[in-house]
Amino acid sequence: MLQDITHRLTAERELRETRDYLENLLGYANAPIIVWDQDLRVTRFNHAFEALTGMAARDVVGRRLELLFPADERRAQALAHVTSASAGERWQVVEIPIQRADGDVRTVLWNSATVYDADGVTPVATIAQGQDITERVAVEAALRESEDKFRYVFDRSIIAMSLTLPGGRLRVNDAFCHMLGYARDELEQLTWQEVSHPDDVAETELRVAELTSGVVDSVRFVKRYLRKSGAVVWGDVSTSLRRGDDGEPLYFMTAVVDITEQRRAAEELRASEARLRSVLDSTPFPVALIDTDDDVIRLWSRSAFDLFGHTAPSAAEWYVLAYPDSLYRRQVVARWEPRVEEARRTGRTVNAGEYRVTCSDGSTRDCELYATFLEGELLVTFRDVTERRRADEARRAAESKLTELNAELEQRVRQRTAELDAVNSELEAFAYSVSHDLRAPLRHVSGFSQLLARYEGDRLDDKGRHYLETILAAVGQMGVLIDDLLQFSRTGRAELTIADVDMAQALEEALQPLRSETRDRDVEWTIGALPHVTGDHALLRQVWANLLGNAVKYTRGRAPARIEVGVLDGPADDAADDAQEVVFFVRDNGVGFDMAFAHKLFGVFQRLHTSDEFEGTGIGLANVQRIISRLGGRVWAQAEPGRGATFCFSLPARKEMGP
Amino acid sequence: MKMDVEAILLAEDSANDAELTLEALAAHNLANRVTVVRDGVEAMEYLRCEGQYEHREPGNPAVVLLDIKMPRKDGLEVLREIRADPRLRRLPVVILTSSREEQDIVTSYDLGVNAYVVKPVDFAAFIEAVKELGVFWAVVNQTPPAVDA
Fold first, then answer.
1. Cβ contacts (< 8 Å) between A451 and chain B: which residues?
2. Domain of B121?
3. What's the rounded Cα separation, in Å, for the pair A179 and A175?
4. Residue B53: inside a domain, yes or no?
5. Which residues of chain A have a CB within 8 Å of the CB of B102?
6. What is this structure's pTM?
């Protein structure tokens, strides 16, 4: 018995030691451990379980398992699990949610073991160990959602996207297929190189290398793809490299925006702008195209640069360059802006007036500016009127100079005229004196001589009477001289009456008295055809009278006397029309004169013959010369003693030719 | 026709001319009615009965013979004053001068002269001219009525 007791005691001690060990193991294990009996009442509840649930073991032990489960449909399922475990079923891994004291539900993975009675068949309790996987489940769910989203975006995106796997194989979306005109299964059989434009493969490989080497995380570049049809597609490509956790490349993620149309439009725009520019550059008028919203001058024609030597990127900067004087600049702006507004309002081209633009070298150009709005942009056209302006200015200067000179000339003419008038008045006074003062004593000499002859004649002898006669003859001679001198003076002062003169008629009028005077003589008159001239009829008649009178006088004693009148031929026949003058002549076969004294012929009171031979005062030819000279002609003579004389005078050719 | 011999006023600065004129008038018994003055001022004094002529017998001469060139006041000025004077303006005036100047002739007629005679140099012609003048103006011509003061 004792033996038995000892054995039993030993057995009990061993049992106790095992139980303590298990108690500690259970109590301090890191994993939550729970034990319940066949009535589903909790018998063990370790520290880790207390941490998991936020409940104390003393509040839970002896109570049914339900209080650990969420109070909803998940509770029944959880109870089904624990019931089956109590019936001896072993769980490999079962997910049973646990509701914490604070209401939070945790996802926990469980495995369990059944504790049997000593018979080894009757289950008495179930022990279960849990693992809180709440965080892991959340992460997995998020990952799943993310992948779903990515796939959704990838598949439905209107942007062409591809995943390029190591080796170059492609995974593409519908947009990528559409872009290149392939079916998806065709395209996914190809490599990226096979759908790239051959000229762009090398460039793409460089970009891939940048990504692979880790220099950059992503690249963006433009490359050409080839559609199935062979047509070129321009793509704006963004590629990034996705690496695995180990850093090894997994795939290239590429998005391609088809910019073919955009490039074509840009190309067209460029071509159109180039065309516009070439048009603008070919016009001689400088133009500027201004975006008035942000004051950017988008375009200057080359002619603007050629003319001004500089241009500016904005109107504000242009003002400063072109109008460096700030005062003038303000005037320019004040004048210019209202015209621009008018152009904007009316839609028409507005002449904005003239402006003086300063060039890069400091010189200035006068430009007429025109403003036109073209689709919201302001087109400014410069018309260079500098040369015209300067010519105008030069002309104005010349005109004013001319006016000045004219005024000066007129002033001088007035002065000379005044001087002439003064001289003329003196002459008139002189002539007056002659006519009055000289004549009076002469009359007295004559008068008293005659009174002497009348009252005392009887007492004079022949000699005395001869003296008286001589006195009277001298007085008479002096009276003629005075009258001639007065006539000569009047010839010089008489106003000219310039008109068309029929020289034949003027000659005939002068000839008339001479014909009767020479009635008793043998005179042969030869009168040639005489033209009309421009002159003074009365004075020309006097010229003829003097010349013909002389001819008659100096041919006295000739039988027959030959007197010829005519016009000398010009130097050449065909020169007659544009001859500068007409030359008339009077030729006689009279006594002539010695050419040695020709220079005295036309002097006042100069005579080449004595009064005894030929009467006269020597005033006739002086008068002729004075008249012809006043009419713009010349007088000259040719003679030889005893062989006649020829007197010539010229007159300017008529200004207007009659019919 | 009135045959009385009317008075003649001769304005002549030249004593020689005055003597010759008087000689010519005397040949026709006209000289005794001639009053001779030596310049324009005296002529106006005579005509207006002023100065030395203050107490002369009133009345206008039948004709005034005026030389042009005289000291102080010339013949044309005298003519202008006569024509401007209401009492004298109808008085016959003859210019008797050496001047053939057209301007003198034109001015004289513009001022209303009754005749313009150029003294001939030849004495016989001069005698004849003066005689005719004297006879015409002092004898033949009807003088205008006197103007009351």
1. 20, 23, 123
2. 8-140
3. 6
4. yes
5. 490
6. 0.41
